[in-house]
Amino acid sequence: MSARTKPVRVKGTGESLRDFPTFKLVSYLVLLFLYLPLVLVVAYSFNSNRVVTVWKGFTFSWYTNVLANDDIQRALMNSLRVAIVATVVSVIIATGLAIGLLRMHRAGRTFAWGLIGAPLIIPEIVFAIGTLALFVQIRIPLGVNAITLAHIAFCVPFALLPIRARLRGVDSAVYEAAADLGANEWVIFRRITLPLLMPGIVAGALLAFIISLDDFIVSYFLAGPGGTTLPVYIFGMIRNAITPGVNALSSMLLAVSILIVMISYLLTRKKR
Amino acid sequence: MATGPALSIARVSKAFATPEGGEVRALDDVSLDVTDGSFVVLLGPSGCGKTTLLRCIAGLETPDSGEILLRGERIDHVPVWKRRVNTVFQSYALFPHMTVAQNIAFGLQMDKVGKAEIERKVGESLEMVRLSGLGSRKPSQLSGGQQQRVALARALAKDPEVLLLDEPLSALDLKLRRGMQTELKRLQRETSITFVLVTHDQGEAMAMGDQVAVFDSGRIVQVGNPEEVYLRPRTAFVADFIGEANLVAAQRDSSSLTIEGLGAIDAATLANPEAVETGAVTVAIRPENISLAETADGAGVVADVTFVGGDIHVDVELGANRLNVRIPSHGAQPPRVGARVHPTFLPQSLRVLADS
Amino acid sequence: MTTQEKTPKSVESRTAGQGSWWAGIPGIAYLIALVLGPIVIIVIYSFLSRAKFGVGVKWVFSVTAYQDLFFGESLAGGRTFDPTYLEIIGNSFWYSLITSVACLALSIPVAIWMATRPERVRTLLVFLVTIPFWTSLLIRTYSFIIILNDNGPINWALKSLHIITEPITMLYTPFATVLGLVYTFLPFMILPIYASAERFDFRLAEAAYDLGANRWTVLTRIVMPSVRPGIVAGTLLVFIPALGSFLAPELLGGGKTSMIANVIAAQFGASRNWPFGAALSVLLLVITLLVLVVFAVLARRASKASGNANWESLL
């Protein structure tokens, strides 16, 4: 007994045995690598020089400039319209799927998972031009509505994951208890299932919203003449003339994304 | 009070498909009458079908065949939400997004009870389970024992014809369990609602049940009050499952019963000579009903002696049989391992068992 | 004792209030139309002929699109072997491979370091690594135009330190493309490896030290085998999207370093050859699926070796 439980020798510097040298340094550098580019985008948005990377002085004017631009306002409205509709529809679809998946037979479930996961695995470019070809073939006009239809498809998996996680955490005896106390299927859904899923639904909606808001490739191919979204507009700006205006617009988009992820994160964390 | 049983289960069977494609008969032609206002315990090891029967009564499962009658009316095809039967779930199944009061009110809202009446009932139920003042808490803010009481209050608030309890105490620690046993008995007496409780704990069954129905492999093998099932087990399974028993092979002929190493006993002195009248039988004898006398020519040899507090357990080898004997620790010096002993007992403490 | 198996649970049993499979039907129908539909139409288009003005297709069966992958039209009018597109496919593979290896080299130390932090720090770190994933891919790629620019911060710093006098051209090179890919896909590598490392019981490492192992041995023989499922999953999650990348080669490679996706996009844009674009898409899809199958086999082996299977949770 005593031979086996002798204390572990601590070698060298007294550093924990769980640490490996240089791992800490590499990790700090990687975190810096992940954030420095984003910080630079934001920093240069305040550059008063027209040439982005040559610093001249501090200004807010790019923000006011950009926000006053009619085309950008239109692109922003398009993006919001797409994102809001895609979010609502994909969350409804995902909630149904989350519930349905639990009661499906194995073959059906495998098929459903294949469909749900496909947009994550199929190269985005293939999905984009495939949808383009489909819409041209069945004469769905390109534009905001076409973009929305496509966004719903790839927002579903992102909306589904938090809802499903939430649903799996529910003790199924709770539904039985509700039925036992006199609730029929519809009442159980409205008074038990839906309220219990709500944090997952909100988190899923937030994720679907950013995924749609940030999408470029699919929107780019489906935009047509009037369907320019914000990322599509930014792409055009990058192609034509890069000014700190691109940075200002990008910074705002970054801020919205990061804010939304944080909210979603806090929502799902609190329920632990 | 109306005559006839409150709840009557007639020849109910239920089979489940196993994932491997086979079939498990969870309930095999089960019949049981539950007297109005009584406390009935369904007792058996896990997987014996007792919980399935409870779920069939609640309406959470549908029997393959047979009838379930509540006060003479068939309910086996009434959907679960319309049955005047309520359940206390093993995991309590409290609604985590509702307060304690909202949990209790839920069932009443389903019955379209008026607001004032609901409020009164909720207060009354909370008082009954001694949780007054905790109505605005969320279930997650309560202890296990308190959650258990909420589950009880929620089911009782609907004034069910029968209250079903599925292993309600299994999640509580030992001390709390003792307290809740008394509490459940009290509630049952005060409300005079018929209770049907499922447990695998024979001590719990003995302590609470007016009637105990012992399950084995999807069948009810014996029904009776606790004394009956303990003192007069009908099968080896019952004898072994309830308390401890030595099951010993014996030979019965018209006038006597012969046990290897112990000789013959006059059949007339047995407690139930009519059980089996001839041939090989199994007899049961409780460990505390055997005494040991140390003699050089004893038929048994002491194999092991264990001190367990109030009792001393002595293992005696008796030919091919092994006897488990319990003697009080405050008595005489226990025999040593290897000593020859002669086991003695009163013939009436032997039970001849029916084939199971 | 015949029925005393596990708790009976019917396959068919429908428990009250848990909803029904048909709740998933609208979703499945929608996804069939808008996920399966585009794939089916792409496969069909790849076997059709080019339309007169290049937009859309002519409904005449043809395998020209697939021939175009290998043969070009020679001046004489005949067809000769032309490796242009094969080279682009080869390039795509090569860039994706370098990206995966670079991500792997960076992620293993990070993931293990993260997994050995206290609980609260760990969740914060996971969140920090996740955030870039949720920000716009376009903007993340764009940020490297700023960084790698001739006037960008790197060249500025090098000039200020008098290391160089003329700016180093970094933008619009294969290096820029790969750097952009590494940057965008790094979180996909860190997170699955971290997920494996977090489940690793570090008392095993202590036991190994106790038995006389040094840090290197502990790392390579004790820790690494148990993070192998994470490595396999992470490599898959980096390699597959890298292979189909459009933005990094488009914006950072400057047209000089096309990958498959850029050629596909061109067919639906300026080049106007939809059947050929469709054929390339089918090819990319087939390659993707093959890679997926290979990794699925590897993953099964890796999870068997380390004794934990957690494939679905990575989705």
Structure, described:
Chain A is mainly α and 272 residues long. Chain A has a single domain, classed as MetI-like (MetI-like fold). Chain A is built from eleven helices and no strands. In chain A, helix 8 packs antiparallel against helix 11 (244-270). Chain A is globular. Chain B has 356 residues and is of the alpha+beta class. Chain B has two domains: 5-231, 3-Layer(aba) Sandwich (Rossmann fold), CATH 3.40.50.300; 244-352, Nucleic acid-binding proteins (OB fold (Dihydrolipoamide Acetyltransferase, E2P), Beta Barrel), CATH 2.40.50. In chain B, 24% of the residues lie in helices and 34% in strands. Chain B contains eight helices and 20 strands. In chain B, helix 2 (100-110) packs across helix 3 (115-128), helix 2 (100-110) runs parallel beside helix 4 (144-156) and helix 3 (115-128) crosses helix 4. The mean pLDDT of chain B is 90. In chain C, helix 7 (174-199) packs across helix 9 (215-243). Chain C has 315 residues and is mainly alpha-helical. A two-stranded antiparallel ribbon of chain C has the order 1-2. Chain C has a two-stranded antiparallel ribbon with strand order 3-4. Chain C has a single domain (83-314), classed as MetI-like fold. Mean pLDDT of chain C is 85; it is low at 1-14 and 307-315. In chain C, strand 1 (49-50) and strand 2 (57-58) form a beta hairpin. Chains in contact: A-B, A-C, B-C. At the A-C interface, helix 1, helix 3, helix 4, helix 5 and helix 6 of A face helix 1, helix 3, helix 4, helix 5 and helix 7 of C.
Helical content class of chain A: over 70%
Query: Rough shape of chain A?
Result: globular
CATH superfamily of the largest domain in chain B: P-loop containing nucleotide triphosphate hydrolases
Number of helices of chain B: 8
Largest interface: A-C, 107 and 94 residues
CATH hierarchy: architecture of the largest domain in chain B: 3-Layer(aba) Sandwich
Q: Kindly state the mean pLDDT of chain B as a whole number?
A: 90
Question: Can you lay out the helices and strands and say which pair or pack?
Answer:
The complex is a heterotrimer of chains A (272), B (356) and C (315).
Chain A: H1 23-44, H2 61-68, H3 70-102, H4 106-121, H5 124-137, H6 144-168, H7 173-180, H8 185-214, H9 217-222, H10 230-240, H11 244-270
Helix pairs in contact in A: 1-11, 2-11, 3-6, 3-8, 3-10, 4-6, 6-8, 7-8, 8-11
Chain B: E1 7-17, E2 23-34, E3 39-43, H1 50-58, E4 65-70, E5 73-74, E6 85-88, H2 100-110, H3 115-128, H4 144-156, E7 162-166, H5 174-191, E8 194-199, H6 202-208, E9 211-216, E10 219-224, H7 226-231, H8 236-241, E11 246-252, E12 256-259, E13 263-266, E14 279-285, E15 291-294, E16 300-307, E17 311-318, E18 321-328, E19 340-344, E20 351-353
Parallel strand pairs in B: 3-8, 3-9, 6-7, 7-8
Antiparallel strand pairs in B: 1-2, 1-4, 4-5, 9-10, 11-12, 11-14, 12-13, 14-20, 15-19, 16-17, 16-19, 17-18
Helix pairs in contact in B: 2-3, 2-4, 3-4
Chain C: H1 25-46, E1 49-50, E2 57-58, H2 64-70, E3 71-73, E4 79-81, H3 84-115, H4 119-130, H5 137-148, H6 153-160, H7 174-199, H8 203-210, H9 215-243, H10 247-252, H11 260-268, H12 274-306
Antiparallel strand pairs in C: 1-2, 3-4
Helix pairs in contact in C: 1-12, 2-12, 3-7, 3-9, 5-7, 7-9, 8-9, 9-12, 11-12
